[in-house]
Amino acid sequence: MSAGAIDLPAAKPRRSAVWTAIRRNPTITIGMAIMLALVAVAVFAPYLGTVDPMKINPIQRLREPSAKNWFGTDHLGRDLYSRVLYGSRVSLQVGIAVAVVATTIGTLIGLVAGFVRWVDAIVMRIMDGLMAVPGILLAIALMALTKASLQTVVIAIVLPEVPRIVRLVRSVVLSLREQPFVEAAEAIGTRFHRLLLRHILPNAVAPLIVQATYICASAMILEAILSFLGAGTPPSIPSWGNIMAEGRQFVSRAFWILGFPGLFLTLTVLAVNLLGDGFRDMLDPRMRRRL
Amino acid sequence: MYAYLARRLLAAIPVILVVALFVFLLLHLSPGDPAAIIAGDMASGEDIARIRARLGLDRPLPEQFLEWSWALVRGDLGSSIFSNLPVSRLIAQRIEPTLALTFMTMAIAIVVAVPIGVLAAWKAGRWPDRLVMGFAVLGFSVPVFALGYFLIWVFAVRLEWLPVQGYTPIAQGLVPFLRNIALPSLGLGIVYVALIARMTRASMIEVLSQDYIRTAKAKGLSQLPVLLIHALKPASVPIVTTIGIGVALLLGGVVVTESVFNIPGLGRLTVDAILRRDYPVIQGVILVFAVLYLVINLIVDLIYTVVDPRIRY
């Protein structure tokens, strides 16, 4: 083989590497593209031809989508395009915040439960109890107790999501703690927290990323449901659930009030779910193309 | 079998206890005075004191919990602050539409999901598979209420095939009942269909790679008997498990679906109670949903013995 033949594959390296990555993970690519577009929309909402999403204009109530109001107007004459664009901020904030907080809390509880017998018995009973109640009910019951704000919405959604993480981390710990490398670490006197953080946790990172992504999707839906039922994000903030709640009585006259936020919500959740599926295929090749 | 049943019922007790404790604490751990929360923003000091005395909120917590759970054991869930009616009666009035919606949705979802899952596994990697899997991802992503309004808009407002909202008890005739329950079941069922179809496909692909399937094909059996008898039956244990896991998803969706379609069930009762801060009702409904969840899961576990004779309890 000549030197030239070896050089040949390196001739067009960068572009084909990116292309291969995209070809290999089409779901991640599509999901990421939609997500980036939505993040851009959320960040640059004021510059995308929007007006004040709260500005009431009684003269132009329930207008159909037109060149002036791309998505039409609602029953108070507010511009729906602006409201929907600003609403993306709520969904993204809540989704990401819940995923981060629930994963952190759940991981800590799961690590300890997996290692300490007596904690395990108590914690798992509590988790079983939490899982026996539909998450939506749990969240709306919590919301009924507190003043509605973005923070309380996040807390109310975190609680029903935590058991999923706890179970996942606990099962990883249980399967690992009999492994020789963990026993060896214990035998040479590794401190407890170091054992958990350095030897056990890294093995749980891959499934955690996947699960956190799914929790993000589920949190976005829960936020919209809470707001839709009137127990979520306060009406002073335009969120997709709020907009749909206000539009529900106009389903036959002005479906666009329900349709546009519903479409955006579906698209956002779809993007996050695609990311989750993509991560799962990438991080756990055995699961690839199975579920 | 009976021993197993007894064991399972015993195992459900701690779960119910945790839910009961949680439901009880829900009101008491909230920031602020529970009596003031229940009384609302417009209440006077007297109102608050009256409510506090009536609910026994002035006594120590453990004593309150014991009394409350003892009443619970006797089937007394307290009475609504808003209407003064016993919570157990309110729930009994509202449970039929909720059960009807839940079981109709389960039935429709299973009838749709299992065949398309089998189809996807059979044609794995080809376009029917892609189509089913694409639909499944979409099904996970579309929120129940968004889909619900979309269905209302298409089938009730535009096509005028079905009524927009409402509920007719099955006692008033099967056709009106089905006409009313069709859209809510469809809307609620989509997540469930997605979940079950995915699991059916995964489980079937696993089984279809077994040697005895190749043997069955080799001895000249046609596709359908191989798929349905040789493959689907052993593949159904994980499918049944998923049906059980999905029940929580389904019951959560019921709450929302009832609001969208104006069905006077437990979900509507809950949402109304929460908007009115009617705490005894909220507590009662959450407990009922938890019990419903445990019971349906127990039924699912008993079905295992039917689909897989190797499993005996």
Question: How would you explain this protein's 3D organization?
Answer:
- The complex is a heterodimer of chains A (291) and B (313).
- With 291 residues, chain A is mainly alpha-helical.
- The radius of gyration of chain A is 24 Å and the shape is globular.
- The two termini of chain A are 44 Å apart.
- The termini of chain B are close together.
- Chain B contains 12 helices and no strands.
- Chain B folds into 2 domains: 72 residues, no CATH class; 220 residues, MetI-like fold (Orthogonal Bundle), CATH 1.10.3720.
- The interface between A and B is large, with 48 and 58 residues.
What descriptive keywords fit this protein?
heterodimer; A: 291 residues; mainly alpha; globular; disordered N terminus; B: 313 residues; MetI-like fold; 2 domains; 12 helices; 78% helix
The major pleated sheet of chain A works out as: none
Report strand % of chain A.
Answer: under 5%
What Rg of chain B is obtained from the alpha carbons, in whole angstroms?
Answer: 24 Å
Largest sheet geometry of chain B:
none
Continuous helix count of chain A: 11
Using only C-alpha atoms, the radius of gyration of chain A works out to 24 Å
Tell me the span between the first and last alpha carbons of chain B. Answer: 5 Å
Task: Specify the helix fraction band of chain B.
Answer: over 70%
Shape of chain B: globular
Oligomer: heterodimer
Summary, kept brief:
The complex is a heterodimer of chains A (291) and B (313). Chain A is mainly alpha-helical. Chain A is 71% helix and 0% strand.
Helices and strands in order, then pairings?
The complex is a heterodimer of chains A (291) and B (313).
Chain A: H1 3-7, H2 13-24, H3 26-43, H4 80-115, H5 117-132, H6 135-145, H7 150-176, H8 180-187, H9 192-228, H10 240-247, H11 256-283
Helix pairs in contact in A: 3-4, 3-11, 4-5, 4-7, 4-9, 4-11, 5-7, 6-7, 7-9, 8-9, 9-10, 9-11, 10-11
Chain B: H1 2-28, H2 34-39, H3 45-54, H4 61-73, H5 87-122, H6 127-141, H7 144-158, H8 174-208, H9 211-218, H10 223-261, H11 266-275, H12 279-307
